[in-house]
Amino acid sequence: MDQAEKLRKLVKEQNSPKPTSRVITVTSGKGGVGKSSISVNLALALSRLGKKVLILDADFGLANIEVMLGIRPKYNLADLMFKGKNLPDIITNGPENIGFISGGSGIQELTNLTKDQIIYLINKLVELDQTVDIIIIDTGAGITDSVLQFATASSEILLVTTPEPTSITDAYALLKTLNKKAIFSVEDTAIRLIANRVTLDEKADDIYEKLKTVASKFLNLNLDYLGYIPLDNTVSKAVIRQQPVISVYPNSSFAKQINSFAMKLCDTDMEINQRKKGITQVFLKLLRSRIQK
Ligand SMILES: Nc1ncnc2c1ncn2[C@@H]1O[C@H](COP(=O)(O)OP(=O)(O)OP(=O)(O)O)[C@@H](O)[C@H]1O
């Protein structure tokens, strides 16, 4: 049996543990549309609704979230995988009790794990699943393998676009590529659109309706709508202060929309519970798709 086959077998053999965390993957076709701003502030808004929230930054090389939260993690996921670090070592405490894990090079290195390292990682993820209510994954930008793998492995996707035509066509391209993946399951995945940086003269609902129509007609995909966020200069002001928008500008239109999204997401808790798979399952799926490549 070659190494790839052994890993395939091992990943298949892992029993599905009882999941507890809800994984929400924030993604986009085009970069720079507001994924990190939305992830950070949504995490805080959900935490204020009583959820234990953690952000996983899967955007290798960029430290946007760290800047937005004003934190500097000492270790990352790769340190857990290769240096035997424990969860408390790699979870940095952010504002208002939210936790943060930097993926570091860990996401890329998933393919290079030994059997013992996979078992160690999976055990730690099971532990994480049991301690956290919601995990928000901020994926990298663009239609890369890593973004697609996270999106296919998650049961809840928040797809962010701006009204720019290139951002909308890239969002559609992402859906199209996702839909072609053998392991992508339409029934098991809720995809919700967020239109960000919308100005008064742009009709956010039209963006959704157009994307929904083409996704349904050409891809047979159902696209839901979480809502829109106006273009709001408090977002960049908050970045300069290295604090989340909803902490420093709680009455801004950005903060109000984020709070309403958090409430909507909690409203659908019941429905999502049936699909809830947890972070362990997401990583098992990621491992499977990488081994199959
Ligand atoms: N609603 C908004 N109004 C005004 N500016 C915004 C809004 N949302 C995000 N921005 C700004 O847009 C820029 C990109 O935001 P952000 O870094 O969150 O995007 P991203 O999708 O995570 O980027 P990347 O693809 O590089 O990871 C930042 O300068 C941010 O301040």
Shape: globular
* CATH fourth-tier homologous superfamily: P-loop containing nucleotide triphosphate hydrolases
The overall average pLDDT, rounded, is 88
Could you tell me the number of beta strands? 8
Radius of gyration: 18 Å
Percent of residues in β-strands: 15-25%
Total number of domains: 1
**H-E string:** HEHEHHHEEHEHEHEHEHHHHH
The CATH architecture comes to: 3-Layer(aba) Sandwich
Structural class given helices, strands, pairing? alpha/beta
Bound molecules: adenosine-5'-triphosphate
CATH class placement = Alpha Beta
Strand sequence of the main sheet, in spatial order?
Answer: 3-4-2-5-1-6-7-8
**Helix segment tally:** 14
Range of helix content: 40-55%
Poorly predicted runs are none
Q: Span from first to last CA?
A: 17 Å
GO cellular component, one term: cytosol
Keywords: ATP-binding, Nucleotide-binding
InterPro entries: FlhG, MinD_FleN, P-loop_NTPase, ParA/MinD_ATPase, YlxH/NBP35
Binding site for ATP: 30-37
What does this structure look like?
It holds the Pfam family ParA. This is MinD/ParA family protein. Keywords: ATP-binding, Nucleotide-binding. InterPro entries: FlhG, MinD_FleN, P-loop_NTPase, ParA/MinD_ATPase, YlxH/NBP35. One of its GO terms (molecular function) is ATP binding. The radius of gyration is 18 Å and the shape is globular. The chain starts with a helix and ends with a helix. Strands 3-4-2-5-1-6-7-8 form an 8-stranded mixed sheet, with helices on both faces. It has a single domain (22-59, 68-292), classed as P-loop containing nucleotide triphosphate hydrolases (Rossmann fold), CATH 3.40.50. The chain is α/β, with parallel strands linked by helices. The protein contains 14 helices and 8 strands. It has helices at 3-13, 35-48, 64-69, 77-83, 87-90, 115-131, 145-153, 165-180, 204-219, 234-240, 245-248, 253-267, 269-273, 278-292; strands at 22-27, 53-57, 92-93, 99-102, 134-138, 156-161, 190-198, 223-230. The longest helix has 17 residues, at 115-131. It binds adenosine-5'-triphosphate (ATP). Adenosine-5'-triphosphate is lined by residues 28, 31-37, 59, 62, 64, 141, 196-197, 229, 231-232, 235-236, 239, 254.
